[in-house]
Design a protein that fits this description.
heterotrimer; A mainly alpha (about 120); B mainly alpha (about 500); C mainly alpha (about 230); A: about 120 residues; mainly alpha; Helix Hairpins; 4 helices; about 70% helix; about 0% strand; elongated; B: about 500 residues; 21 helices; 2 strands
């Protein structure tokens, strides 16, 4: 039996890679890229969970024979994409502010410098 | 009918405050009046508060809103904190964008308490995350920005997990609506997807709700924000995660995970609070601990338990808001947030602020006539005995022990006349003090005779006494607690581990 | 790599793998649930041919409004949080080649027109306000590649831009609230749908699409221009 990868498998693989990038990479920009990967994977998951092969697009007039693809996940994904864009833009702005202050994008160095400024555990 | 107007009016006022520029503060008054009017209408029995499908669409396409006692409780808490924050920031110089963020925050919160649809909850939670993360970093100090960025990364990961769970629920039941999902689950209660779906949803919300392993961002974020924002976040916004958990609890059976997570959160929060050297961090950890209490209460089933949880949410929200405002004012008078500096400079703290601190500390450790005692009593009274009671009492001891460090702040009692913003404190002191008589009116479910009985009063005082003794004992023996876990890299690990824990507790594998 | 880091990495790897496997195991959909029931009803109620548009601009308009609030808060936030920083020292602009300038001149009006078309016909064919606004904004980016972002910013009237930033969301929210005054539930459609599949066949969806298109256009420009203007160095 041959294995044909579906959208869901791709989405889960991307999710795993994204989480690993977010967790393991020290560079802030790479963490944001990992977050972007996670967002894209959830969108792919949402769209492919109602996938039926040979479905018609949900724009009228629809040919009478056959199933119409489900328009609800597609509409919902629109909102998700815009929200992801907004969050990514703001996260980048904050990274810019941090870089201007600490002259590095390394999260561990920033963490140490912030802790040093605070004078140990607060 | 009026339900969607509640959040939309706040959004409208938010954009209006950017338009009006200099008189943006007036919008806060408009917002408060509108919300108070809404509560008044509700009590007048208006028929506008029925459940509604927005825009008239039914079925999976439409979005359902409903106003039930849970919504009412959090609406009251929201209006209280809205008034307190409005009074507090009245004299601060803030750009219009600040007011817009405040309005957007309240719009999101009020929309969340009405929401009955999973994707709607997702969008609103993202708006809530965004506005609170922007408000934490508002002053653009580097510490705030870093705490806030950590929060954003973890919260976005959590929300993505939530969306995955919502997608699975949609795939199997064909709808995002909570009621329809409940019907779908009832149709096939042993589906292998239910555990994964519920675990993803709970893990996603847990990041915002303040559950221990998921909310490692919380102490940093709540303690570096400015005073009014800390009060708002700890008093109100954190409860929004609990609202979603209440909704999810009605769809999936979450008793065991809630109990375990609540216990862990409560104990860990109390332990870190006892070990804190900074007053705002102490208050933030105390919030974690109280949320744990709430979750344990939520895991007990039964109507009276839910009423107790709602009463506790309002009580804790008011008391924590009061404490943050008072602590903020004290830090401003003394010039530092470290506890030893505050104790050293306590003669400079204005009297009104000291009084607020007194009421707040008495309130949160659970002294009888004040707010928290009534609510805690209600939850204890509906406990089923055994493990639940033991955990609840242990958490009560812990929260009393956490505040031993602040007691030296209250004596000696001298009058200090200094300009301070005590108006906001009074807004919150009154509900805390008057909670008991009001609670009987608002929550007829609370078993008052049991709560005020000799046995319960004795238990209450004994718990507080034990806590105070424990706190004194630990005062000079600092607990060796791992502090490295609050660094950025552990956040993701903790969320993943937490997800697996919830999955196992839900009976997966 | 120290031992602690290696242990951390391996734990992350195991936990992520566990998460992915559990999610994959639990999703065994036997070809979906078939055609959803509400498809036929959607078409008759809104008059729009694009069923996706009739969902997110009529049925789920509430979600879309919140998502627009998220977008507005983000755009205003980018402007606000970058405003305190000094604009960066600008290196001397590299003159772009004639090929780029000529193609930008040729493509820009076409892209604007395409954006307007996508937004206006969003209820009849794939597209909609978001797609149209993005396409038009990409036309503006093309111009800034060709003649420089500062030159483009000089030609845009800033006070009007700022006024539009709060006026557009106010208009959209008012449009949602206004039906209450007419005695209908809030967020109901303002203009009744007409059959026929023409451009005016679904009243309020067209209006929302155009407003969203302008909003996304302005918002994207503000965000990207903010990043360009305040770029710094490490």
């Amino acid at each position: 039996m041959s294995y044909s990868p579906s959208g869901i498998d791709a989405a889960i693989a991307l999710l795993g890679i994204g989480i690993l990038v977010l967790a393991l990479r020290r560079d802030l920009i790479l963490k944001l890229l990992g977050l972007g990967l996670i967002n894209s994977s959830t969108i792919l998951f949402l769209v492919s969970i109602r996938f039926t092969p040979d479905a018609a697009i949900p724009i009228l007039p629809v040919r009478d024979a056959g199933i119409v693809a489900d328009p609800l996940p597609q509409a919902v994904v629109l909102s998700a994409i815009v929200i992801n864009f907004a969050i990514l833009a703001l996260a980048l702005v904050f990274v810019m502010i941090l870089v201007e202050r600490y002259h590095t994008t390394d999260s561990e160095r920033i963490e140490s410098e912030v802790a040093a400024e605070q004078g140990g555990e607060g | 009918m009026i339900l969607p107007l509640l959040p939309l009016s706040h959004a409208f006022l938010g954009f209006l405050s950017i338009a009006w520029g200099r008189s943006a503060r007036a919008t806060l008054i408009c917002a408060f009046l509108f919300d108070a009017a809404a509560i008044g209408l509700y009590y007048a029995g208006s028929r506008w508060f029925g459940p509604v499908f927005v825009g008239g669409w039914k079925g999976p396409v439409g979005i359902a809103l409903a106003f039930d006692p849970v919504s009412l409780a959090f609406l009251i808490l929201g209006v209280l904190l809205e008034l307190a924050v409005a009074v507090y920031v009245w004299r601060e110089q803030r750009r219009p964008y600040f007011f817009m963020l405040l309005h957007a925050l309240f719009a999101a919160a009020y929309a969340l308490i009405l929401a009955q649809d999973l994707f709607n909850i997702y969008v609103i939670l993202e708006l809530l995350t965004l506005t609170s993360f922007l408000l934490v970093a508002y002053d653009r100090r580097a510490r705030q920005v870093w705490a806030s960025l950590k929060y954003l990364l973890l919260a976005s990961l959590g929300m993505s997990l939530f969306l995955l769970g919502a997608a699975i629920a949609y795939g199997y039941t064909g709808s995002f609506n909570l009621a329809e999902i409940r019907t779908g689950i009832a149709g096939s209660p042993d589906g292998p997807w239910i555990a994964a779906c519920a675990a993803l949803l709970v893990a996603g919300v847990a990041v915002k709700a303040g559950i221990f392993s998921f909310s490692l961002w919380l102490p940093a974020a709540h303690s570096t924000a400015s005073t009014a924002i800390s009060a708002l976040l700890s008093g109100f916004v954190i409860n929004m995660g609990v609202v979603v958990l209440i909704r999810l609890d009605s769809v999936f059976r979450l008793d065991l995970p809630l109990l375990v997570l609540g216990a862990v959160t409560g104990i860990a929060g109390a332990a870190y609070a006892i070990a804190s050297l900074d007053v705002k961090r102490l208050l933030a950890f105390s919030t974690l601990s109280q949320i744990g209490y709430l979750l344990v209460g939520l895991s007990l089933s039964g109507g009276a338990a839910l009423t107790g949880v709602l009463a506790y949410a309002i009580a804790h929200g008011s008391v924590k808001g009061l404490l943050f405002l008072a602590a903020g004012e004290s830090s401003r008078a003394v010039g530092s947030t470290l506890i030893r500096d505050l104790i050293g400079g306590r003669r400079r703290i204005p009297t009104g602020v000291r009084f607020g601190l007194l009421v707040g500390i008495l309130g949160i450790i659970g002294i009888p006539p004040l707010a928290v005692y009534v609510a805690k009593g209600a939850i204890l009274a509906s406990g089923k005995g055994g493990i639940d009671q033991a955990i609840l009492i242990a958490l009560g001891v812990g929260s009393a022990a956490s505040f031993v460090k602040l007691i030296p702040l209250l004596r000696p009692w001298n009058r200090v006349r200094a300009p301070s913003r005590t108006g906001a404190l009074w807004v919150l002191v009154l509900p805390v003090v008057l909670f008991a008589p009001l609670a009987v009116r608002l929550f007829p479910d609370i078993p008052s005779p049991t709560v005020w009985s000799g046995g319960f009063l004795w238990k209450g005082f004994a718990t507080i006494g034990a806590g105070l003794l424990l706190g004194r004992f630990l005062l000079h023996r600092p607990l060796p607690l791992p502090q490295r876990i609050f660094r950025a890299e552990f956040g993701v690990l903790a969320i993943l581990a937490g997800f697996l824990l919830i999955y196992l507790l839900l009976g997966g594998v | 790599m120290t031992r602690r880091k290696a242990a951390f990495a391996i734990t992350c790897l195991l936990l992520t793998a566990a998460l992915c496997l559990l999610v994959a195991r639990s999703v065994h959909l036997p070809g979906g649930l078939g055609e959803p029931q509400y498809i036929r009803e959607l078409a008759s109620r809104t008059g729009a041919l694009n069923l996706v548009a009739s969902i997110y601009l009529d049925g789920r308009l509430y979600d879309t409004i919140f998502e627009l609030i998220v977008f507005s808060v983000a755009v205003l936030g980018v402007r606000f949080y970058l405003s305190e920083r000094r604009p960066s020292h600008r290196p001397a602009p590299i003159p772009e080649s004639h090929v780029v300038r000529a193609s930008a001149e040729a493509l820009f009006p076409f892209l604007l027109l395409l954006g307007i078309y996508l937004a206006a016909y969003g209820h009849l064919s794939p597209g909609g306000g978001f797609a149209g606004g993005t396409v038009a904004a990409s036309g503006l980016m093309l111009c800034s590649i060709a003649i420089g972002a500062d030159a483009v910013a000089r030609r845009i009237h800033r006070p009007s831009l700022e006024r539009l930033e709060w006026a557009l969301p106010l208009t959209i929210i008012s449009l949602a609230i206004v039906p209450v005054l007419l005695g209908r539930p809030p967020l109901a459609a303002l203009f009744p749908p007409r059959g026929g599949g023409g451009i005016f066949s679904s009243g309020s969806i067209l209006l929302y699409n155009l407003l969203i298109g302008i909003k996304v256009f302005i918002g994207s420009w503000v965000v990207v221009h903010g990043f360009i203007e305040h770029r710094g160095e490490i």
